[in-house]
Amino acid sequence: MRVDETRAAGPFWRRLLWLVALWLAGVGTVGVVALLIRTWLLGG
User: Fold this and answer.
1) How confident is the model at residue 16, as a pLDDT?
2) Rounded to 5 degrees, what angle do the CA atoms 38, 43, 44 make?
3) Mind spelling out the 3-state secondary structure of 23-37?
4) Helix %, strand %, coil % for the chain, to 5?
5) pLDDT tens for each residue of 1-40
6) Is the Cα dihedral 26, 28, 31, 37 positive or negative?
7) Nearest-angstrom CA–CA distance, 34 and 40
8) CA dihedral sign, ordered 33, 38, 41, 44
9) Domain spans of the chain?
C-alpha cells in the first residue's frame, strides 16, 4: 500500500512544487514591474 501511496502523492507534490514555482515567478515579475514603474515615476 505504501507504494501506491507514493505513486499517488508523486504527481500531487509535483503539481504543488510547480504551483509554488509559478507563484514565485509571478510575484517576482510583478515586483520587478512595480520597481520599474516606481523608478520611472520618481525619475520622470
Assistant:
1) 94
2) 100
3) HHHHHHHHHHHHHHH
4) 95, 0, 5
5) 566 665 666 788 999 999 999 999 999 999 999 999 999 9
6) negative
7) 10
8) negative
9) 1-44
C-alpha pair distances (Å), 14 with each of 2, 5, 19, 25: 18, 14, 9, 16
**The three three-digit cell numbers of residue 3, written as one number:** 507504494
Distant-in-sequence, close-in-space partners of 29: CB < 8 Å, separation ≥ 6: none
How many whole angstroms separate alpha carbon 2 and alpha carbon 23? 31
> CA dist 1 to 7, 11, 22, 24, Å?
10, 17, 32, 34
